[in-house]
Amino acid sequence: GGDSYSLSPTPASADVKVDGLYEQAMRHQREGELESALALYDQVIRADPDYAEAFYGRAMVYYALGSCDQAINDCNTAIGLRHRFAEAFLVRGAAYWGKAAPLEEGDTQRPGMCEHVISDCTFVLDLQPRNGMARFNRGLAYMALGNKPMAKYDLENAVALLRDPEWRAEAESWLAELRKPRTL
């Protein structure tokens, strides 16, 4: 018969439940309750493995917890689901920088990670030219690669674009470092 669909919950009610969990996860994340946010994002992803925003949200939490590899994996999934997901590119670039920054200058993995930062941030800037965080992260990656002119350009733009005073101060201090004359 035509009424077999009544046996399962309507997709709409399932979506409402998943959206509710997602809203809760974001609230916990905003309030700094990262472990519970992580658990809620996990629930959303189990219920709907195509929920790109949940992968992005979980990536931000992993990044905040210092788990850069897990953040990168979740960003990759989010980007696979939504190809022009600028925010996921931004977090992935930041996570690559999180992996590159602590490495020694001579570490062979560092340049490749910096290239990832640059390409992710460039993608973001193509969509959002006034994104200060993308300018900031890309500037640091250029600096790590020894490309002073591009580092200076991006960090100057970051200082102009960043609204958060702490991030702006951070960008200014890197810019000051870049402007110091090199001594032997």
Number of helical segments with 4 or more residues? 9
Looking at the chains present, what oligomeric state does this protein adopt?
single chain
Low-confidence stretches: 1-10
Radius of gyration: 20 Å
Structural class: mainly alpha
The major sheet is characterized as:
none
What overall form do the CA principal axes indicate?
elongated
The total beta strand count reads 0
The succession of helices and strands, N to C, reads: HHHHHHHHH
| Fraction of residues in β-strands | under 5%
Helical proportion?
Answer: over 70%
Distance between the termini: 85 Å
- What's the average pLDDT? 92
Structural summary, described in words:
With 184 residues, this protein is mainly alpha-helical. The protein is built from nine helices and no strands. It has helices at residues 11-30, 34-47, 52-64, 68-81, 86-100, 110-127, 132-144, 148-161, 165-179. The chain is elongated. It starts with 10 loop residues before the first helix and ends in a 5-residue tail after the last helix. Residues 1-10 have low confidence and may be disordered.
